[in-house]
Amino acid sequence: MAAVLEKLKIPPNYDVERVIKEDFDRLKGHYYLDHAAATLYSDSQIQAASAELQNSLLGNPHSRSCVSDAATRIVDSVRQRILDHFNTTADEYDVIFTSGATQALKIVAEHFNWHGSEETCTENGDINISKNNPEPTIQLENGHVSNSSVQEEVFDSHRKEKTHGAFVYAMENHTSVLGMRGPAAANGADVYCLQTEQLHHVLDKCKTLPSKTNLNHTDAREKDNSVRAPNGSRKKKRHCLFAYSAQCNFSGVKSPLVWIDKVQKGALDPVLKRQPLNKNNAHLPENTADDCIWYVVLDAAGFTATCPLDLSQWKPDFVPVSFYKIFGYPTGLGCLLVHQRAWTVLGKTYFGGGSVLMIDSRRIVAVPRPVLHDKFEDGTLAFLNIPAVRNGLDTIENHTGGMKNIQQHVFNLARYTHHSLRSFRHGNGAPVVEAYPKDANWDVRTQGSIVNFSILKSDGTYVGYSQVEKFASLYNIHLRTGCLCNPGACQKYLDISEETLIQQFKAGHVCGDAHDLVEGLPTGSVRISFGYMNSYKDADQLLQMVKECFVEGNLIIDSSWIEVQPCLVEKESHHMRGQTESEKLEIVNRNEEHCDGDESTVRTINGYLDSDVTNTPLQVENERNVTSAPPLKLTNIILYPVKSCSGISVREWSIGEEGLKYDRQWMIVTNSGTTLTQKRLPIMSLIKPSIDMINGLLKLSFKGESIAVPLEPQDGSTRDASLCRGVVCGDRIRGHDCGPEVGAWLSRVLQQPDLKLMQQLNKRTGKLDSKGNGSLGESLSFANESQYLVIHRASVRKLLQDISEKGLAKLTEEELVSRFRANLVLDGGEPYEEDSWEELLLGKLRFKVQGGCNRCQMVGVIPETGERMKEPMITLAATRGSYMKFGIHAAAVSSVSIDETISVRSKVRVTSNADLM
After folding, report:
1. Active-site residue flag, 485
2. Other residues' Cβ atoms within 10 Å of the Cβ of residue 152
3. Tens of pLDDT along 149-158?
4. Out of 335, 485, 595, 856, which one is annotated catalytic?
5. pTM of the model
6. Which tens digit of pLDDT belongs to each residue from 454-476?
7. Which portions of the sequence form the region Disordered (predicted)?
8. CB atoms within 10 A of CB 201
């Protein structure tokens, strides 16, 4: 690595290695880089939380017993601990416990008074109701019910004045913030979307603004909630809400917190003179800018995970927080911090258990609790999880010394990784990575813990993010890809226009899928994000993966664009000192890089992802040179009775309705119905099935241990046995539970709890046609996509040659054949000619070719050991394109009788697309 990049490795102010050793020993061999999604919980926190529960007797806070009082006191203490963490007090902020930041935003959107203060009436004035609070409530005097009588609501719409508010949001926001548009628009609010550049233009030029009203006190604001219209009548003020993210969860870019005060003082007033998104040709009222009281939602879910938020300095009205992003546990728990100036603008239409002082079941009359959090915490709080919040905050404080230290460390990690990736060049000088944003200002005040990027080929075209994710799994790197629940930032940085977005959707791409490229352009990107327990080893593992898997030719490091400021290296370790900064261009000899222990020295990988098509000319049957291309023949028939376990090689076998008889008729599922595969559990390859036709048994063995189950359910057992469910390639499957004995055996040998062996009962329809986008109507077993998977030994040998030339691994032909888990293995002909096949005839059986098989990281599993290696994935990607197609899917199109068989002696014939022209 260039010396300039090494100088960016600044040690943290706390002992990361000690933290990992004491609290994250389970990370051995893993590189977790997805902290923006959820950080990791520490052993210390879990032990402290468990000890507190074990030593306490806690009851439902809504009861009146002493154990209930104990729970209430703990909840109150945690509420205060949260306020302390954000450097504020209960006089300024209230803490409403929620299920997370999303629910907190939902509370604001659904209960914010979008109409301003509305005039209402009852028969005697005792009941106060507004648009935001249609449930009649009794007026309180000093927190007590007034002595005046309570009457049913008599509502006169002619005496109510409506004032519609406005909702303004930054384009680069989490989906949960965008969701606030719905309730806002439904309540008549004008909706506006501004890009970050527009916000900077409007807000940064506003140096100082006088307050429109005394915004620091609720009573003062309420006294001035209306103004005199020119005719002398009272005109209600609009309630306007601005929502933005303190740190973008897509790019890691931080937005200025000074915006909070500027917006509250009216800096966004000019925006309201524009046309709102939801009201085409709407009449814009005059003087709208003078009618607004502005409130600010600061989405701090991502920011507070690694950065300090001082609410004594910055005073947003609403702050949603998710605790699992800060310290990992518990999930499903967050809070909404509400500033006292906004306590009265949250109305309530629903009252759950514990949130009222009195409610009459015979009339629509209720008295909500006067304290804000009591009013909004419907039902029973998660009082057994809430104590873990204090344990989590204490743990990270003890480990790191506070959020400021965490903020600096994760920034240093992100900057080092970002600058290294941006410095990588292919052998032809082209950049390896496109980072987002492309020209970020890397300062701890403006950039956080996130690095977002796409991989580029040497010709400037993109590598799909799902491809990067597959390779990352080989290196045990855990990251995130896609649009990351931030469509605005994704569309901005990837330059996805409105028209392109619709085209991508019509092409089949939806949020969260693996459809990473549409017409060569990315639909999402790759994101890594650091947490307080990450070290430079994690960053270097990612950089190693990029170098070994995606660099074409010799790696060039161009660090000429990097400016290393003295302040960035003042804490560098002694071994970094004295190195010059003049070294700006370095050619790295890839022979000095090393892979995993069972692989040879890594050399330059030439031509990675040169093309999405094969680099070998397609050959068809009538063009073969008979002297160099022997006729096709069937060499292997392999069935896999249990999905993702070892196969059985046979010379002859019966054909069933779903393919080879007993092929993938069983699968291993968890108690919740999750299907286990080698993709996540490679040691499944060590389970070796065998079929005893004489005794009607399926036998399973694992390292000398064995167990057997009937091939067919016994008479009546299907009716009496329990059913279990699973999911295969999106299909919900119902199957027969083969019993607790085999389930316990599987749980023990695979070291996974509550496993079951499930036998197929219901039919599945096919998923592929010759174009890969439909169905031929054939039945499927538990196989993912097709009845038969066919590979070609000529192609295996070509791939083996490519692997050998690169010197990345030593494999035999049979070892490589076993990696692709084919049902039918053919030999003869030319490499990759199967890409052009349309039909395959084996004896009397006719098969329709349904397209190439896209390969995943399962081809890296060594069947004999259950371990992973990087080949053949690396070479597949280099020679077969982004989707690493190898082998073909096929379905039987002939009518199949019960006693039909297939044999290695079957005559093989093919027709290709060239034959049909």
Report:
1. yes
2. 11
3. 333 333 333 3
4. 485
5. 0.79
6. 999 999 999 999 999 999 998 99
7. 212-233
8. 11
